[in-house]
Amino acid sequence: MIVWDGMRPDFVSEKNTPALAKLAHDGVTFRNNHAVFPSATNVNGTALNTGAYPGHNGVIANHIYRPDIDAKKSIDVEVPAVVEKGDSLSGGNYISVPTIAELVQRNGGHTAIATSKTVGLLLDRHKDSERGKNSITLFAGASLPPDSAASIAKILGPFPIAPKFAQGDSWTTKALTDFLWKDGVPAFSLLWLSEPDGSQHFTAPGTEAALAAIKSSDENLMLVRAALDRQHARETTDVFVVSDHGFSTIRHMIELPKVLASAGFHVVTEFSEAPKPDDIMMVGNGGAVLFYVTGHDEALTHRLVEFLQRSDFAGVIFTKAAMDGTFGLDQAKIDNEHAPDAVLAFRWNDSKNQFGIPGMIDADWQRAAGKGTHATLSKFDMHNTFIAAGPDFRRGEVDELPSGNVDLAPTIAWILGITPPEKMDGRVLSEAMMDAPTKLPTPKTTTLEATHKFPDGTWRSYLRRTELDGTIYLDEGNGEFVAR
To answer: Taking the CA atoms of the chain, what radius of gyration do you get in angstroms?
Structure first.
């Protein structure tokens, strides 16, 4: 599995990505692939590798508030100290279901995880167990076992730190092909490239820098396939190229703490003392925001939600408790014991940026209008790249059926002959396999609506979902307040 972080499917072409276009010619292009919401890295990285929805696997956002882990401020879910404490508190179930790497190891296989971002720790966080003694995890220059990265750095030099995204990707690719594959290609390998996500955040989709970033990821794909040839493993290896999410351009940067403070809400991003009854912890995630209301105060949550519904930036609102004009957290597959009281997905539209690339969003992040980000329910964030080729896949075909990041782990497990301990949320992509069934399932798309009438207008929002074989894919969602 090779992840091109933030790669939009509409940038795949002979010109932009000759190596990926060749892979598509040799295999199957999944035309209707979906990220899970929020459409962000750690959320989708965990979904890719567990086959489970965020609410099921435990990672519901890149940044969350877990007072049992840190009572004062939000946490980054992939930080080693956070992961270690989360496992300590949960008896080793910080990620509440097994990852595909763990399943492979439990079945006697070896794995290699190499990520130029810290997300790698979520994909296989074993230490020195007997199970993982011949498996290595690299994440942004660190590693498990801890001494593995140091030995690689002696040869390749130190891991390049951001914003040297392409250099970090090159280092990680070489670490995988030249070191982790030195004695052969394991049963399962994962390479996570930070481009084009890194460059698109600093610029925008369609910029010269973003196109160069896409080219660098394509060159790393060529290096991987060449390494498979050297190992005489090309004909026996399935290659998955997938992105964690799509990407958009920021239309307006919303300074949400200031907006809410001016409306009389006491919003904090860090507690300096014990929470007060009217405090709301706000955790930004770019195109989505999580709200934790002290004491789960129902009246305060209602007032917050009604204010957001009357704003000019709200797209879709999810709440833990039922409220007019909102969808339940469970309808986005993000409900669990640590879930917030409300989640806001910012509004989006399909207008174009200055480089002619469609997909504009509002966002709450430390990035200005005109830069790139994601995590909304925009169709440009929720639809992502996925191409697979190898001995188990049909050649030169396009799969129009809905698929999603949650489908990769069950498909990989099926290919490797592994039976998961419990049924995964995703499905096996059998229609794309060499022995594809003659009768294909029929997907069903529904549009859910949530409205709230006010004296001076109406809030209207929708959530479009497609179901296939029991797996739910979120297509898009949006909303607006229409004045009388």
So the answer is: 22
- Check whether 80 has a pLDDT greater than 80: yes
Tokens of 170: 């090159």
What the block records as the tokens of 67 is 């007072």
At 24, phi and psi to the nearest 5?
-65, -40
Distances (CA, A) of 213 to 3, 116, 254, 363, 367: 13, 14, 27, 23, 19
DSSP letters, 296-362, are G-HHHHHHHHHHHHTSSSEEEEEESS--TT-EEGGGGT--STT--SEEEEEPEEEEE-TTS-EEEEE
Place of tokens 């195109």: 287
Share of the chain above pLDDT 70, in %: 99
Amino acid at site 251 = R
Dihedral over Cα of 293, 297, 303, 306: its sign: positive
Instruction: Provide the token pair at 439.
Output: 């009768």
Choose between 132 and 247: higher pLDDT. Answer: 247
Report how many helices (DSSP H) and strands (DSSP E) the chain contains, helices first.
14, 24
In 10 A of CB 142, how many CB atoms? 16
Looking at every residue in the chain, the average pLDDT score rounds to: 96
Cα distances from 189 to residues 36, 102, 126, 139, 228, in angstroms, run 22, 12, 15, 13, 12
Residue among 446, 463, 459 at smallest CA distance from 331: 463
Strand intervals (E) in 14-76: 28-34, 63-64, 75-76
Q: What average pLDDT does range 450-475 have in this prediction? A: 97
- The tokens for 295 are 């004491």
Indicate if the pLDDT at residue 423 is higher than 70.
yes
pLDDT bucket at 439, cuts 50 / 70 / 90:
confident
Tracing tokens 């498996």 back to the chain, one arrives at: 135
Return the structure tokens found at 277. 């009854």
Chain-centre distance for alpha carbon 431:
24
